[in-house]
User: What shape does this take?
Amino acid sequence: MKGRSWLWACIMGVVLLFALSPPLRAIENSACLDCHGDPDMVKELPNGKAVSLYVNPDRFKASVHGRNGIGCTDCHSDIEKLNYEKEVPHPVPVAPVNCADCHDEESAAYEESVHAKAKAKGIKGAPTCATCHQYHYTPYLAAYTVKEKRDLFCSKCHDPMSHHKWLTQKETHFAHVDCSLCHAKTKGMTNLRLYNPLTMKFIPGGRIIKAFGGSYDSFLKSLDANKNHQLENEELKAVSDKLGKKGFRVALYGEMVAESTPEVHKITKNAIRKCDTCHSPKSPYLRSVSFVLTKPDGEISSYKVEKASLSSFTTSKFYLLSATKVKWVDIIGFILILAGLCFAGGHFFIRIVTIPIRRKRGDK
Amino acid sequence: MKRIYIHPIPVRIWHWIHAIGIVLLVITGFQIRFAQHIHLMSLSTATTMHNWIGIIVILDFVLWFIFYTFTGKIRVYFPSVEEIFKGTIRQAIFYGYKIFKGAARPYPVTAENKFNPLQKLAYLAIMFILVPIQLLTGLLLWKVEELKNIVDFLGGVKVVDTVHVLLFFFFVAFIIAHIYLGTLGHTPLSDYKAMITGWEEEPEEHQ
Assistant: This one.
């Protein structure tokens, strides 16, 4: 009996071990990194040039794919087994990775883009997926600022300043609006980020959480005093006081960003050129306004903000012309103009009425 | 009737460039501020025009400043102590009451002193404080991203914009009053003629 129970225990243990361990791959990442984790690993091309085949294990682990448990052979799917009897244990060359195997919607949108058309025409340097997203270190993009995204993607090939001749306030637009918002005509939203106006740098959410403790979500919830799941102007105003007590000098930096949907890849030359798409209180990009904390891993935590806060001095560093203006300024303005009209009109009226008096004096 | 030369050519050139500039700035300014309600031109055209005209007005302001400073005529803008206190009251009483009775002006125009005390105070505030603030805030809004450190130091784009817009409304009100007060000369058109020809007509008894 005793021997049999031992046997059962062993069998159950093995079963449990398999059940609880991560799904087994034919080839583990570690096997690939045995060679590709060596910074000196290079391949010599026929023209004598050397190409690095090194993959930084830590950077890969931090990438979108690494963090989601995507392994080397999930993408390099033509490598089914390793044959160590050969000098290179896998087929050479390896087949190109087909991103569309997983990212079919993104790929379909890309096929309709000006980039795919350029590629079809055989234009050298026409971008494919990896041109923008990189091969092994595909980053999380949520925490990227508009400018960082532009540097990472568009500015690699395009100089936005040499185009957009029709656009006024180029620098301002490029600092606050995602290229893809106009060029892919995607859904968009307005994000308010923490920004230090003295150093002119964004404040990472991690620093805030380190100072206040708790989680990102619990910190954001603590800002919502009336617990109605959105931050009104007063609550938003209180943010800078709250952070000020811990020594943070903060302002809210507004950005109009494209929603991360597959359509973002359908980049077109015929971008939105109608100013009032954004410059109107009815702009679709103002329907969703969020207060955003960035996380060290590239993701964000966000909390809904009442749209009216954009039309106040709480967001004094963000002004979307004619869309988020402070209303009382116009009221004072109309009173001033009315006063001018009343003065001129009133004086003129009295002048007309008193003509007989002056005529009489003149006759004398 | 005596004719007095009060507006030399540089002054008239400055004034009319300024006048046309300001009117265009007001029109484009209304278009920019009220893009939802006014549809004279696209927002893009309005901002581009507003920016260029703004630069012309700035250069024109520099012309005004140089001419008045280097000829010494700038002193016409500075009221004496007597003018600040008694003079403004006298002039206000004239505008608000005596003018209707056909009384003579308390401060008739002379070649050296073309402004009455109220004009002096108003133009002093406008030309030395309000217009410069308007031109500077305009410059900041024109290059809002490039001059971000100054804009942020002043409290952010919305603060700078509010100052610019409030002054904009003030200038609109001022223009209305200015155009009307221009008809209060010796004849309704004499001040307008003077601003074109340089010569002001004054009744003999004032000399």
